[in-house]
Write a structure and sequence with these properties.
The complex is a heterotrimer. Chain A is α+β, with helices and mostly antiparallel strands. Chain A is 39% helix and 20% strand. Chain A contains 16 helices and 17 strands. In chain A, strands 1, 2, 3, 7, 8, 11, 12, 13, 14 and 15 form a ten-stranded mixed sheet that branches. A three-stranded antiparallel sheet of chain A has the order 6-5-16, with no helix packed on it. In chain A, strand 1 and strand 2 form a beta hairpin. In chain A, helix 6 packs across helix 7 and helix 9 crosses helix 10 (388-399). Chain A is elongated and about 95 Å long. Chain B is built from three helices and one strand, in the order H-H-H-E. Chain B has helices at 5-14, 21-38, 73-78, and one strand at 88-91. The longest helix of chain B has 18 residues, at 21-38. In chain C, the strands form two sheets. Chain C has an eight-stranded mixed sheet, sandwiched between helices. Helix content of chain C is 36%, strand content 13%. By secondary structure, chain C is of the alpha/beta class. Classes of the chains: A alpha+beta, B mainly alpha, C alpha/beta. Chain A binds chain B through residues 34-36, 40-43, 49-57, 59, 67-73, 92, 99, 101, 147-149, 151-152, 154-160, 277, 279-280, 283, 285, 287, 290, 292, 294-298, and chain B through 13-14, 16, 53-54, 56, 58-69, 71-73, 75-77, 82, 84, 86-93, 95.
């Protein structure tokens, strides 16, 4: 009965006669890539022993004061530039007051009224075209520590290693309309930040997580519905599941004539449902006020321009260039630019292929053979067992006819072991393509002679048999014969 | 204006200070007399005044991104009411 | 050598430098007198054994180029001192031993001084009589059962009672100047940003400043020279060119223009205070300065503003005392129960009161009406001073609207207690330097102080004015040693 129509662009929830649209806004928390914390000089490395990366400031000892990390400020501004956003020359740090075991100060230093980055936008490549998603703001804030509830039946353990690590909170406008758009949006943000080197985007390690605001409304309505905020979801899959569940829950309430409470909810990944956290909501009145231990953060035009000049080519520009310069299809370009390491790999392959390059072939090898190997072995492209240089050589060997595409696959298998130079493999294993027409002619003559009956059948019109002859010839050459030559000679001989 | 017991209960909850009836009544009295005195500010029209956000006559200085604090877990944990050498230990969190 | 503890800091430094006294002689003398003065209850923690060791060590290899060579000194228990218990006068920090040192005390030890111990104060510096301390009332050496003022009450009594040659306090709304006035001593609150706040238990971050408390202006200038440094660990520390305050000290204030603000003449102010003020005006004139009547129109709004800003900041600054990382923890069934009991049992009544006020003025729906309003009025108060300083170099006022009162006299009326700070609070709100110097006695023989307020970073000027009129006043503190049996 519950149906979700996914025709072309629209994601709608259908009930009897009614269709509902889902409105989604995200607050993404991205950990800033930096050596030390936002307001203290302790390390930010993931996975350290508990409480070994905690300074007196991070543990909020009496009399300890925050001093801001310049690099984190630059990272936030760079990200703002990457999001085509307005950089605010004056921003203010506020205290967000609440009590929790892993919040040592009893407040989080964040930015409330005056964030460092204002409105911006990102472009999503959806199957049915591009979509622009508005960015409301980006602000800097401190992360909290970690409470561990499952190591002891009576007690909670507190690890403050994360306490004080810099986060960027990126708030989108309520422009997202489907789980797929949410997925594309997160991937795009992640991609931009990885290009900029401002966040590693590692969701397993919690470097990227999001609060998801969901509301529904009748299709065509301009008013927003009452929204619920699903807190701290740490994978794209869970975000999508949470949105599906939550949107359907809200629609059901409306259908039953009930109202939706604006509230904070939690996504239970085991039961695949969202649950109210209302008990927590009641106690929350964050009492924001400007942190008197800090002054307003002021940055000059010069400071911003210097960062602007150092912004690398970002995915959208790179995609455009790949299409223009390398004549890739938009689809191919999108795949290759989506991750900075893939783009780097591809560009290195292109560079190493030299003047006579076959771009199509290179793209196919990367997105085909290489991706499937990485996928099977669960590796990032930066950990690829085959270097860009050797892949470029392999592609060139195919392109100049030294080996066939089929042999290339064999060679590629052998390359996986120790990133061996394909030329050496071809040499050692004697895999060079047989391209001497005379030798192939002799070979084919023998095959036709051995299969005279089939040759007659072919000539009488059983054209399917052509493939049989090709296979025999290939087999006889040990797979090394140039398939194009085989085709040509066979056709001639079987006329 | 008057601060009632309900308000006292609310702010005591926000500030995580337990307050019994007797204490709440005393606090309500004290706060009311203090706020009577504070209300004097309403005599002033301040619509066009920029609030003072910082009194320090300087600009915010930025520090380089260097790690200076090493592992000082022992120092960090030393004063804690309860720990297990690795973690701070607190009574179970009940939501 | 005549009674060592009666000597000023400057005299002691000279005598040590001239090898007439050793650090051990001096340290021993102050320890002995302190031991005999337990009734004053100035110490929360003494560090006498360690002080004697340090004095001996100093004498073995004395570095006489230092500014405070081998000088023993007790400090307010709001400064974190490495390996010495630091309580802020609170039960909630009753067992807290810092592993670090505040910048201000670090500066002092770097110039050769030796820690005697930690001095009593109002809990988290919230109070005007030292009666909010978890460690009991402090006696004013002037008279039995007289408050020493607060919050730096232990510091003021220790200097007045000659238990330390000099000391440091902190001043958020008058906590150095008011007790100095009540005990016949000199107290300087420097410009906001002059002394680092690193390692000082915070009360209200935008108002707190550490400063010297001394027997005379020259000693005060010397200590200010030591403690005022730029500190990159405090984002509100200001990097300005600091004077050599004691070396540059002069009694020549000829031609200086001194403002007399009419708004400091408040209803119900005792005639003795008015008379003292008039005397002060005459003294500065006698010194060749000119007095000019000025107006600081928003003066009467300062105290209400202060009682929004300071509690608001305090409510947040004191959130870290939650029984998790350090300090007192009450037993609780769960985390929230533990928090509520810890903070209810760990904080005293006045601190709880201020946390509640602060929480209220910041809470949803009240922020604009209170906190934002106060920040705007604070701006108006600062503008008043900016205007005045276009015409004058400094401002002269009484330090307090009355002399010291009896212990228990005002404890049941918070507002009348708060009114003590009526002349000192505007200075903190505007971030300016202010000094209180003893200028006379009331009919009961209790000391009264005059306050000189300066332009931002113009400590040298107010020290000079204070130095000039100090000579004219020739104040003698009436200390009878009544507490020594």
């Amino acid at each position: 009965m519950d149906q979700v129509s996914k025709n072309s662009s629209e994601y709608l929830i259908n009930r009897k006669d009614n269709q509902y649209e889902v409105v989604i806004g995200l607050e993404v928390h991205a950990q800033v890539l930096s050596e030390s914390k936002l307001f203290s000089a302790s390390a930010t490395k993931f996975g350290a022993e508990p409480n070994t990366q905690v300074s007196l400031v991070d543990a909020a000892f009496p009399g300890m004061l925050p001093v801001i990390n310049e690099f984190c400020v630059k990272q936030a501004i760079k990200t703002g530039i990457g999001l085509n956003a307005k950089i605010n020359k004056r921003s203010v740090f506020d205290r967000k007051n609440y009590f929790y075991a892993d919040l040592p100060q009893g407040y989080q230093i964040s930015q409330f009224k005056d964030p460092i980055v204002g409105e911006g936008k990102v472009i999503l490549d959806m199957p049915n075209g591009q979509k622009e998603i508005g960015i409301e703001r980006l602000h800097l804030e401190q992360d909290a520590g970690k409470s561990i509830h499952d190591l002891d039946p009576q007690n909670t353990f507190v690890d403050l290693n994360r306490s004080g690590v810099a986060l960027m909170e990126i708030v989108s406008k309520p422009d997202l309309r489907s789980p797929d758009e949410v997925s594309a949006y997160i991937k795009k943000l992640r991609s931009i930040m990885r290009y900029l080197g401002t966040c590693d985007g590692n969701m397993q390690e919690g470097s990227l997580r999001a609060d998801v605001n969901v509301s529904v409304r009748a299709k065509g309505s301009k008013e927003f519905g009452t929204r619920c905020e699903i807190k701290n979801v740490n994978s794209i899959k869970f975000m999508q599941m949470a949105i599906e569940f939550e949107a359907n829950r809200q629609v059901d309430l409306i259908e039953e004539g009930k109202s939706i409470d604006q509230e904070t909810r939690l996504f239970d990944t085991k039961r695949n449902e969202t649950r109210s956290m209302r008990s927590k909501e009641d106690a929350h009145d964050y009492r924001y006020f400007p942190d008197p231990d800090l002054l307003p953060l002021e940055v000059s035009d010069e400071f911003i321009n210097e960062l602007k000049n150092k912004i690398p080519e970002l995915p959208d520009d790179k995609k455009k260039r790949f299409i223009d310069e390398f004549k890739l299809s938009p689809y191919e370009a999108t795949i290759l630019v989506s991750d900075i390491d893939t783009a780097k790999y591809f560009e290195e392959v292109v560079a190493k292929m030299g003047k006579k390059k076959d771009m199509k072939l290179a793209v196919n090898w990367i997105t085909g053979e290489l991706f499937s190997v990485l996928n099977n072995k669960n590796l990032e492209i930066s950990q690829s067992p085959v270097s860009a240089k050797n892949l470029a050589i392999l592609v060139n060997l195919i392109k100049n006819g030294t080996i066939s595409g089929k042999i290339a696959k064999t060679v590629f298998e052998l390359m996986l072991n120790g990133d061996k130079d394909p030329q050496i493999i071809v040499e050692e294993k004697g895999l060079k393509q047989q391209s001497d027409p005379k030798a192939i002619e002799a070979l084919i003559d023998k095959i036709i002679n051995d299969n005279r009956e089939k040759a007659i059948e072919y000539k009488q019109g059983k054209e399917k048999l052509f493939g049989f002859f090709v296979g025999q010839a290939m087999k006889a050459s040990g797979g090394k014969a140039n398939p194009q030559l085989i085709n040509e000679i066979l056709k001639k001989k079987l006329q | 204006m008057s601060i009632d017991l309900k308000t006292i209960k609310h702010i005591s909850k926000l500030s995580r200070i337990s307050v019994d009836e007797k204490k709440a009544e005393k606090l309500a009295d004290d706060l009311n007399s203090i706020f009577d005195f504070i209300e004097k500010l309403n005599e002033l029209k301040t619509d066009k005044v920029e609030p003072l956000t910082s009194i320090a006559e300087t600009t915010l200085k930025l520090r380089p991104d260097d790690i200076k604090s090493k592992n000082i877990r022992e120092q960090i944990i030393k004063n804690s009411p309860q720990d297990n050498e690795d973690y701070f230990v607190v009574p179970k969190v009940i939501e | 050598m005549s009674d060592i503890t009666k000597q000023s800091l400057t005299e002691l430094v000279d005598n040590i430098k001239n090898k007439k006294l050793s650090s051990l002689d001096v340290t021993k003398a102050f320890i002995e007198r302190s031991e005999k003065s337990k009734e004053l209850n100035v110490y929360i923690t003494n560090d006498f054994t360690s002080a004697l060791d340090k004095a001996k060590k100093f004498d073995q290899k004395p570095n006489l180029n230092l500014k405070l060579p081998g000088i023993p000194m007790a400090v307010k228990d709001l400064f974190c001192t490495k390996d010495v218990k630091t309580t802020a006068g609170s039960k909630i920090l009753n067992n807290f031993v810092p592993t670090y040192e505040s910048t201000v005390t670090e500066n002092i030890w770097n110039e050769g001084a030796i820690l005697l111990g930690k001095l009593n104060c109002d809990e988290f510096a919230m109070g005007s009589s030292n009666e909010t301390s978890f460690f009991g009332n402090v006696q004013n050496p002037i008279d039995k059962d007289l408050v020493p003022g607060g919050s730096s009450g232990g510091s003021a009594s220790a200097v007045a009672g000659q238990l330390t040659p000099i000391t440091i306090g902190t001043d958020t709304g008058g906590s150095i100047r008011q007790p100095a006035s009540f005990t016949g001593t000199v107290g300087l609150k420097p410009t906001y940003g002059s002394c680092s706040r690193y390692g000082i238990v915070a009360f209200a971050s935008s108002l707190d400043q550490a400063g010297p408390m001394a027997q005379n202006v020259k000693d005060c200038a010397l200590l200010q020279e030591v403690i005022s440094t730029y500190d990159s660990k405090d984002s509100t520390s200001v990097d300005f060119k600091r004077n050599q305050y004691s070396k540059e000290l002069t009694n020549n204030i000829n031609g200086k223009k001194i403002g007399i603000p009419k708004e400091y003449r408040v209803d119900g102010m005792p005639k003795e205070i008015e008379d003292l003020w008039q005397k002060g005006i005459q003294y500065v004139k006698d010194c060749g300065a000119e007095t000019i009547d000025i107006s600081l129109p928003h003066t009467s709004y300062a105290l209400p503003t202060y009682y929004i800003v300071a509690p608001a900041e305090a409510s947040s600054n004191l959130a870290r005392y939650d029984g998790v990382k350090y300090g007192f923890r009450a037993k609780g069934e769960n985390l929230i129960d533990m928090y509520e009991k810890t903070r209810s049992e760990g904080f005293g009544a006045e601190v709880q009161r201020r946390i509640m006020i602060g929480t209220y003025v910041l809470s949803s729906g009240y922020y604009d009406a209170y906190y934002l309003k106060a920040q705007k009025v604070r701006k108006l108060i600062k503008n008043d001073f900016d205007e005045a300083y276009k015409k004058v170099d400094a401002i002269l006022t009484p330090s307090t609207p009355s002399s010291a009162f009896k212990i228990g006299e005002k404890t049941n009326d918070p507002v009348s207690m708060y009114l003590n700070d009526i002349f000192t609070v505007p200075v903190n709100l505007a971030g300016l330097p202010g000094i209180s110097i003893p200028a006379g006695h009331d009919s009961k023989g209790y000391p009264l102080g005059l306050q000189i307020i300066g332009k931002a970073f113009d400590e040298q000027n107010i020290l000079n004015i204070a130095y000039a009129i100090e000579e004219k006043i020739d104040f003698k503190n009436k200390i009878t040693d009544w507490w020594i049996k």
